[in-house]
Amino acid sequence: MADERPVPAYGEYAPEGWEWKPDEGSAAQRDEGSLAAEDQHPGRLSGVPHNLGARGSGSQAAPPAQRDPAVGAQSSSAVDDPHSYRASAPGSQPQAPRPRSGDRVVTIVLLVLGACGALYSAMSLYQMPGSFELMAAALQVDGFVLPESVRTLGMVGALLVFAVYALNLIYSLQRLRRGKLTFWVPLVAGAVAFIIVFACSAFAASQMPELTRELADPTAMSRILEYVSQTGTAP
After folding, report:
1. Quick check: helix, strand or coil at residue 219?
2. How far apart are CA 215 and CA 217, in angstroms?
3. 47-69: per-residue pLDDT in tens?
4. How far is CA 57 from CA 54, 80, 96, in A?
5. Does 30 fall in a domain?
6. What's the domain count of the chain?
7. Residue 15 resides in a domain
8. Do the beta carbons of residue 56 and residue 64 sit within 8 Å?
9. Which of 55, 95, 133, 138 has its CA 20 to 30 A from that of 110?
């Protein structure tokens, strides 16, 4: 006959006062077995079934030699960088500078004109002593002697004009590569070069007061032009 009683639970039919105590020998054997399993499988945690999380009861994890190295590298990089899965913010990517075609054309034209102007201004400062000597001869200034400071001033002024244009060219090209507004750079450089030429000429004229008095005469310009037409030279 089939037993109609319910399946007994642990300790339900045990005698009164009885409690289960593990045998010391069997516990030691179990500990030794777990330590041996850890030595054979160092990556396995003790007390955790080796097939935990497997798809089937008989399935085993793939050996390291059969794993895809690309997948392993991707997973390791994802572990190292916890924010790698997140998409970048909309404004975090650097935006490329907008092209300024009009500014580029104007800047190039100003740079070409500036090169011509810098060359002319530098040559004028370098030849400034000869020009003053020619004007003194045309105005027939008695006892005119050109100071040596005028020659030095002309050379220094010419070098300053070339230096201003070189800095203007370098800075303008850098701004054009970065896509920034650049047309004002040659204009500022031209203004600085004009100030250098004017200052050098005014300081040189102040070193020759006798020539300055003759140039203040209203007929000075007509006398210079007449002298140039006769001799065929230009100041």
Report:
1. coil
2. 5
3. 555 555 545 444 444 454 445 55
4. 7, 32, 57
5. no
6. 1
7. no
8. no
9. 95
Q: Where in the sequence is the domain holding 159, given as residue range(s)?
A: 101-231
Q: Is residue 225 part of a domain?
A: yes
Provide the token pair at 171: 């800075």
Q: Which of 191, 212, 42, 29 is nearest to 136 (CA)?
A: 212
pLDDT tens for 112-153 read 999 999 999 999 999 999 888 888 888 888 888 888 889 999
Q: Please classify residue 144 by burial: count the beta carbons closer than 10 Å to its beta carbon, then call 0-12 exposed, 13-18 middle and 19+ buried.
A: middle
Is residue 157, in this structure, part of any structural domain at all?
yes
Q: How far apart are CA 202 and CA 67, in angstroms?
A: 85
CA–chain centroid gap for 35, Å, is: 59
Q: Which residues, other chains included, contact 229 with Cβ-Cβ below 8 Å and sequence gap of 6+? A: none
Give yes or no for a contact between 136 and 217, defined as CB atoms under 8 angstroms apart.
Answer: no
Q: CA triplet 27, 28, 34: central angle to 5 degrees? A: 90
DSSP state at residue 41? -
| CA–CA separation, 190 and 109 (whole Å) | 13
User: How many Å apart are CA 177 and CA 100, to the nearest integer?
Assistant: 11
CA dihedral 7, 11, 12, 13 (to 10 degrees): 100
Asked whether the beta carbons of 125 and 154 are under 8 A apart, the reply is: yes
